[in-house]
Here is the input.
Amino acid sequence: MSRIDIRINGFWNVEIESAHQVYRGILSNISLGGAFLRGEFSKTEEFFILRWKKGEREYKFKVKTIRKGEEGIGVIFLFQNGSDIRKLWSFIREELKEGTFSTCPYCGKEVESLLLGRCPRCKLLLSFEDRSYLGLHLKETLPERLRIYLDAIEEKEEELCVDILSQVEKVFFKPLKDDEPFEELIGSSEKMLEVFSLIRKVAPVDVLVLIQGETGTGKELVARAIHQRSPRSKKNFVVINCAAIPESLLEAELFGYERGAFTGAYSSRKGKIEEAHGGTLFLDEIGEMPLTLQAKLLRFIEDKVVERIGSRNPKAVDCRIIAATNRDLEKEIKEGRFREDLYYRLSVITINLPPLRERGKDKVLLAQYILKKLQRENIGSKKRLSPEAIQAIMEYHWPGNVREMINKIRKALLVSESDLITPEDLSLNFHSPKPLKKGLKEEKLKVEKEALLLALETSGYNISRTAKLLGISRPTVYSLIKRFGLNPLSTSHKL
Here is the structure.
């Protein structure tokens, strides 16, 4: 079986710091995944700090015991940040004697030269001297690393998987402030992965961004994620909803005003643009902005100068603009309700957020995430979604998108009288039934097959978990698989 990390052979004297004492030991078989440790130290302790030196450089890592033997213990490195793993890789790379390799250090197959770039058998990277090696190697082997942990999950599968996914999400998006209600930017559908990729690409670059999507899809969350990953993240993120403010007040709210500029202006006030100086201005529902203000906004974008109402002293302001809309702005342009020149300035980069109904299995993943988060806020006891509720979530159209899902789950936690949340608790049992195109028996078989496939995919094709999700026995699951002619062994999942 191939290993996923290159291992260096040799012995290194190390100091072993435990909770109570410092020992001496010998470290060997070092890889990014772990090492073997020998020495006269307490075998009962689980965590240690290892220290060793090479020349003037000192190495220090926290490790965890994963295997015990008569000669020593197997440990894994617990990296605190990216700097830790880069430091260990630099040590491993310096110890490599590339000229001595006649076989692939991963799978053992003979290779003509490490200059080939990849092993022809296991396909793993061999370009150890390349500066991009570590990042590419970790990215390519990440699924296998996660699978090692996932295979060990036996209990509380849903909670653990949601924990893992929420941590992954935090890697891509800095967490929101504590007073933000949700972090709904979660999903693995193709359309959402495209959104995540665009956010990562545009965040560091100071360009204008237009976010398009239906109401409730999370446009402000995308804008905030861009801001928090940008060089402007330490400055203000200022939001103005162009649809929520009357036209007569929107100009003053956006550009500010001087004392005496109009009746009731008893003191000068900054506008939202000035408040966003150095940071990001998020113009929500930009399609609702009056044409007269669109012209003034366009001038600001071009000149980076703002002039308060009642003032003749223009002021330079540096802020990034991100706009969002639930309208078809190209259609609005044709009908004379939106300026074409402003549209092209705002849409340097366009991010299209998919509606929830088009996000496939993301709907269930998101529902589990929201349920867990609401329960942490003590809205309800520990409850989980029933298989029927999961099926209803998959089938429902979700016209209100993520916002509607949050409200339905919030309600379900309050009204549910058992540990299982049902479609009735979610108010998902009132949609009109589809007319039967086949007989009752055929429709029943179709529903059973769809429920089985969904449970199999949700459980990672694990028979025990599938049976638990459906509330039936393992033999019944096998019987259904045989009846419907399914072949889960053809997938990459194990039964």
User: Anything to note?
Assistant: The chain has four domains: 8-96, 190-352, 357-421, 440-490.
